[in-house]
Design brief:
Blueprint: H1 2-24, H2 36-85
Helix pairs in contact: 1-2
């Protein structure tokens, strides 16, 4: 997602550079993020962050279900102790 947006920005930058070369006969060949090497690095970072988000979501859901189960278990223990006292 991030890498495709950067690739689009690089294409727009290249198009703008070619138009300015034609109009000004000037050479402006600077790329937005330094070429393909930087895009592969950003792709790796993007993939790592998406995995981190998925892992955090999974851990949150597991913790939520454990708390829910614990509360239900405690409630059942209270009911059982009240039945024993009665």
């Amino acid at each position: 997602m991030l890498v495709s947006s950067i690739a689009r920005l690089n294409v727009h930058n290249t198009l703008n550079n070619s138009v300015s070369k034609q109009n000004n006969n000037a050479s402006n060949s600077a790329h937005t993020f330094g070429g393909e090497h930087e895009l592969s690095m950003l792709n790796k970072i993007d993939n790592k962050l998406s995995l981190d988000l998925s892992t955090n979501k999974l851990l949150y859901n597991v913790n939520f279900l454990q708390e829910k189960f614990s509360a239900k278990h405690d409630q059942n223990n209270v009911k059982k102790s009240l039945n024993v006292l009665a």
